[in-house]
Amino acid sequence: MMSSMKKKLAVTAALALAICMLFNGALACTSIYVGPALSDDGSAIFGRSEDFSNSQNKLMYVAPAGKHTAGELYEGCYGFTWTFTHDSYSYTAFSDDNGEGVGNVCPDCGDDHPHTPYEAGGTNEKGLSVSATETIGSADAVGEADPFEDLGIEEAEIVTVLLSEAATAKEALAVLTGIYDTVGACDGSGIFIADNTETWYIENTTGHQYIAVKLTDDMVMVQPNMSIIGAIDLDDTDNVIASASLIETAQTAGSFVGDADANVINYVLSYNEETAPNARMVNALAFLDPAFADTEAEVDPAASYLISNIDENGEIVPMYTGITPDKALSIADVQDFYHIGNIGYVRNLETHVFQTFPEDGIADTIEWVTMNDAAINVFIPYFPMLTTDVDASYKLSTAEAPFVEEEPESGLYYATTTYKRVDGERVAVDGFKVLPENWADSMYWSFDALSNLVMYAELTEEQIAAVNDALQAKQAEVNAAFAEFKAGFDPTAEDAADVATAWSMAVAQDVHALAVELVNGLIGE
For labeling, which of 60, 100, 252, 306 is most exposed (least CB within 10 Å)? Predict the structure, then answer.
């Protein structure tokens, strides 16, 4: 084990401070949607990077059917409770680590009561996929008019409840909006809810008000922790689901922008103060649309990333954005999207990308997964409705990666900076993050070690290029192998679940082994 080998992943104090200041800024999850008319294989593609912290373990697993039973009271991290209406469906999921490695203590709420800490995305046995969430806030005025509820649903609980309870996107929307209407939400978010027939995107930025829009086949959208729903005609009831008091609440707050008599609201202007694109949006637009390749150009939100269903004449039209790719986008393009700076980086906990095909069957959804930094990684495909288990490296609960101020005498670690309260003041403290001794047994920690080596160690350009080349070659190999496997795979066969599970598990083991090999190779050099 490399845990006995001393290795400092060095970085100057100035660089460490700069990185730490970056990480203590706004949250940085980023979502993308590509409609089937704009994808190269007719699939709807949507996904999200979950960003929170460098070196915080994330697990992936399959929650078995009946994990939650009818009548069971589920108590979440922050006070929200839910009584399950039936035995839960099975589903794939990611969660924070509250397992044996951390003494069964939840890293989110610090408690050891039985619950699932922040399941962040997955697909259930019925073909419902949920990605939650992109954290977003609101303007102060509407926040005061419709405050968040302390006991409302929190983003950490949304995936657990919806994938357990709902069989279709419409059912899931009904469950979630019913919760918003009654007990409310305790924070704001943007969420994908989809099945093989439709993909919905829903935002809430206050306790009880929300708006959901059905995404069209010929649109692309990006959401980097900012509200992206613009001018919406609420009379388009086939494609819009909104809270009953959406306009009234904004009017009460004095922030309403729209035409109440026509039942039209500009949601982003009514419920949010910030409309200018952040750096991730600018980078994403430049990647997706040649018109925005000049990152110095001023971006007009109304003509670029906002979702609307109103044309220049005020008429209802299918949902659209101003993002216009110059080619049909492939799954490889979306994988590359998560290599963009500030989108794929060391703060990613995991990234999940779904493909849904119109065929109505148990293989009509594909889930592509990376653990840790998506930019230094390989996406691994799964048929989630057929996957009965994942490799042990995904499920390993480990000790936390502690921050220490004195340089360790052994183990794998890197220099970084954190902040502490000293006599009431927030003070930067230099130190070291120490990876668990069994890092090499974990998919998450193996890529965390690799990412931090590339980020912080004094590697040469040639070493970094060799890592990137190896990962890109492996991604191309995985993509090609999956295309071949999918072409010959019979999802109706009696052993289809066993075959699909074994195939993805073998690929995961191969990718995991490559990550460990690359880390050990860099340490040896």
Answer: 100
> How far lies 27's CA from each of 23, 30, 222, in Å?
8, 9, 15
pLDDT at residue 274 tops 80: no
Q: For position 375, which CATH number holds?
A: 3.60.60.10
Residues 6+ apart with CB under 8 A from 204: 180, 185, 188, 189, 210, 211
Residue 511 domain-assigned (yes or no): no
Q: In whole numbers, what is the pLDDT of the chain averaged over residues?
A: 92
- What are residue 33's phi and psi, to 5 degrees? -135, 135
The one-character DSSP state at 288 is H
Stretch 143-147: mean pLDDT: 97
Q: Annotate 251-273 with DSSP letters as a single string.
A: HHHT---EEGGGTEEEHHHHH-S
Return the SS3 of 506.
helix
| CA–CA distance, 487 with 496 (Å, rounded to integer) | 14
**Cα Rg of the chain, angstroms:** 23
pLDDT, position 143: 96
Residue 19: pLDDT over 50: no
User: Which pLDDT value is given to residue 443?
Assistant: 98
Asked if residue 7 is part of any domain, the answer here is: no
Whether residue 82 is contained in a domain is answered as yes
Range of the domain at 119: 17-395
CB 271 within 8 A of CB 204: no
pLDDT in tens, 211-246: 999 999 999 999 999 999 999 999 999 999 999 999
Q: Count of domains in the chain?
A: 1
Q: Is residue 71 part of a domain?
A: yes
